[in-house]
Task: inverse folding
């Protein structure tokens, strides 16, 4: 009833990937300003993704026969945490590598796997997620986008929203209704892979409060899809999307959204200490507090990776660690702002100030994307046997 | 790796011997027969010698296994320093004879042999036969037989101010072998963090059971979203505390790493506040009564939080290492993993 997260460790052969990835990522981002690096999995750079693919660092969890590396979740954990810690612009391939690829590998037909997976592994197919709609957010089962049988296969109508990277992606995997009405909830839902270049697909970018336009609204107007647009079984969309969200929630990116800010702030404290200045006790304790949280979350994340590696689907554990992780991610900009502002006479370096401003502005999204805090806590409660 | 056979055996032993009735009895009469009897049972079990090397007649277990024992002590509100005795005995066994009896750990100022020795708020001071007194230059083992002891804590606390008129004749001066001295405060903090993790796990179980059992508005209160969200937070904190405590007792050999102990004690302390608060909030008034067992655990949990350094103390140690070292934070925490 109470979830268990026994400690685990990253196998040596996966740990061996680390230094090379770290060196490559740090070199690639060397010229980038910290507030650009802080965008990390919102930072789109197709060239960077292609260079990762060339080094064999995409599709680590995907089967070899479809162009993947067949290495498993720990290898991906190592690569991902180094890329995120460096603030590398991983957004282009991020969703495909994290969840669309594994989804296709798990539920796709052989033809679908042959078509999509090699492209994902080569950074030639970027994916986005079609879950939320204007009237279906946390209540995902109420989606109204509908695919109906048509001579060619399916005809798709409706719209999706908050879709990250839609203008620059090749495909969307959309959760749609294939039978029944929204009142039928979990029944009658299916997942469709839609080529975003098809006639009838319109993408409208949405600008956010930080000046970026990473997410968008997508309109489907009589989009003609072939039979093989359906991924997995017709009517099994809810079960599939739940599995997909477990991939989405279980990775180390749920701890590291503010790590570039943390590192920049620490570097600033280090420089001040080196110059002979006394660092105030509150800042020292705060740095320690971040470290104690980070160390613990990383252990929990490794424990979840162990479960994924052994074929388990740690849905409740992943929700729990994501909720805790996003709390730390949100604490960092809040508390660093106060630590820096405790002495108004002390100048703050502009790059650090801009990084802090950016992270502070987008921090509310950390506990929205991939399932809101309240939804996650509801899932945890169910896992604990409370309903 | 933590051995599940050991976990089960320890849990069975501690749950069987350390019942709520005995906890209450020992709290009411710390110097009474109840404490003596329970300690004899612990002595006979051999768990007190878990960390002593096999070549010295002990259990030869590692720190993480000893952590399993400390966690069970936390789960069952153990009113004796069963957990703290383990590392003290391991250190003594290297030197020679190990006296019997419960042992606690205290840090204090340097001892002057002619002057009285005073330690304040010694955890388990009312029930310990021996005090490992760690001073800046020397570690002493002092018998409490001829010491004056005054309760220093709140109701039910086993902490004491202890005064020795002079250095006892049978005081043992621990040799500090090669290498650095044992970091006794960190060692105690790491073991207490594990007890805290055990207490939090128990409180979570009790709180879930109560929420499913207690009905208001025509249904179990565990069906109310407001309650569910709070208990989810409690579960998150309890699991984080456990992961932190496992880091605290990881490392090479039998020596506690002070930076790992810092993570354990700071994180467990932070979690303790939320866990104790939610457990009481969900239980309502029954949770603060003498007769209901909840208080046996929350009182201890919050007392442990303040012992051997709190969150700010340990976070400053971590923060100073982080700022001095200048390694990126990810590399810093990678070097402090639960399984090195």
Result:
């Amino acid at each position: 009833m109470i979830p268990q997260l026994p400690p685990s460790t990253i196998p040596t052969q996966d740990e061996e990937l680390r230094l090379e990835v770290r060196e490559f990522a740090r070199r690639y981002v060397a010229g980038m300003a910290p507030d650009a690096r802080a965008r990390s999995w919102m930072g789109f750079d197709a060239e960077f993704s292609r260079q990762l693919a060339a080094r064999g660092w995409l599709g680590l969890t995907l089967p070899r026969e479809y162009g993947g590396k067949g290495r498993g979740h720990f290898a991906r954990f190592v690569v991902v945490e180094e890329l995120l810690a460096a603030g590398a612009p991983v957004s282009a391939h991020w969703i495909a590598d994290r969840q669309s690829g594994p989804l296709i590998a798990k539920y796709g037909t052989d033809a679908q796997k042959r078509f999509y997976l090699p492209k994902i592994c080569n950074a030639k197919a970027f994916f986005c997620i079609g879950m939320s709609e204007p009237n279906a957010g946390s209540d995902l089962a109420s989606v109204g986008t509908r695919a109906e049988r048509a001579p060619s296969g399916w005809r798709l109508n409706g719209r999706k929203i908050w879709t990250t990277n839609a203008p620059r992606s090749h495909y969307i995997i959309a959760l749609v209704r294939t039978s029944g009405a929204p009142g039928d909830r979990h029944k009658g839902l299916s997942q469709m892979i839609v080529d975003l270049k098809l006639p009838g697909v319109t993408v409208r970018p949405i600008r956010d409060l930080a000046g970026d336009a990473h997410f968008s609204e997508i309109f489907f107007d009589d989009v003609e899809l072939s039979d093989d647009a359906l991924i997995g079984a017709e009517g099994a969309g809810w079960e599939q999307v739940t599995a997909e969200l477990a991939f989405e929630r279980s990775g180390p990116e749920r701890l590291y959204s503010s790590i570039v800010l943390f590192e920049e702030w620490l570097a600033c404290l280090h420089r001040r200490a080196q110059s002979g200045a006394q660092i105030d006790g509150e800042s020292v304790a705060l740095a320690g507090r971040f470290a104690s949280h980070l160390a613990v979350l990383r252990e929990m994340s490794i424990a979840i990776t162990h479960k994924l590696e052994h074929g388990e689907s740690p849905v409740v554990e992943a929700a729990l660690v994501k909720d805790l992780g996003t709390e730390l991610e949100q604490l960092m900009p809040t508390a660093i702002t106060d630590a820096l502002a405790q002495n108004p006479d002390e100048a703050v370096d502009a790059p650090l100030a801009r990084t802090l401003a950016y992270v502070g502005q987008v921090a509310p999204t950390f506990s929205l994307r991939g399932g809101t805090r309240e939804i996650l806590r509801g899932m945890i409660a169910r896992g604990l046997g409370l309903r | 790796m933590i051995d599940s056979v050991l976990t089960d055996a320890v849990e069975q032993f501690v749950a069987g011997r350390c019942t709520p009735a005995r906890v209450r009895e020992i709290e009411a009469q710390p110097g009474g027969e109840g404490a003596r009897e329970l300690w004899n049972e612990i002595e006979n079990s051999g768990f007190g010698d878990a960390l002593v090397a096999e070549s010295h007649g002990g259990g030869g277990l590692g720190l993480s296994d000893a952590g399993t024992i400390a966690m069970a002590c936390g789960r069952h509100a153990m009113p004796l320093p069963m957990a703290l005795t383990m590392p003290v005995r391991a250190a003594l066994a290297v030197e020679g004879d190990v006296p019997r009896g419960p042992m606690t750990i205290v840090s204090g100022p340097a001892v002057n042999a002619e002057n009285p020795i005073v330690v304040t708020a010694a955890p388990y001071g009312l029930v310990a036969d021996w005090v490992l007194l760690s001073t800046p230059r020397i570690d002493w083992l002092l018998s409490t037989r001829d010491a004056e002891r005054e309760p220093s804590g709140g109701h039910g606390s086993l902490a004491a101010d202890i005064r020795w008129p002079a250095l006892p004749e049978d005081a043992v001066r621990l040799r500090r072998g090669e290498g650095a001295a044992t970091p006794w405060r960190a060692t105690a903090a790491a073991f207490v963090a594990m007890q805290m993790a055990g207490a939090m796990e128990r409180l979570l179980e009790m709180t879930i059971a109560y929420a499913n059992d207690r009905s208001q508005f025509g249904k179990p209160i565990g069906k109310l979203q407001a309650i569910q969200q709070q208990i989810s937070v409690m579960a998150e904190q309890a699991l984080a505390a456990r992961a932190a405590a496992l880091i605290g007792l990881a490392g090479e050999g039998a020596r506690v790493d002070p930076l790992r102990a810092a993570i354990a004690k700071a994180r467990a302390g932070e979690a303790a506040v939320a866990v104790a608060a939610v457990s009481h909030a969900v239980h309502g008034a029954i949770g603060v009564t003498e007769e209901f067992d909840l208080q046996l655990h929350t009182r201890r949990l919050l007392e442990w939080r303040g012992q051997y350094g709190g969150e700010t103390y340990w976070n400053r140690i971590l923060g100073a290492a982080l700022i001095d070292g200048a390694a990126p934070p990810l590399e810093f925490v990678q070097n402090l993993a639960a399984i090195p």
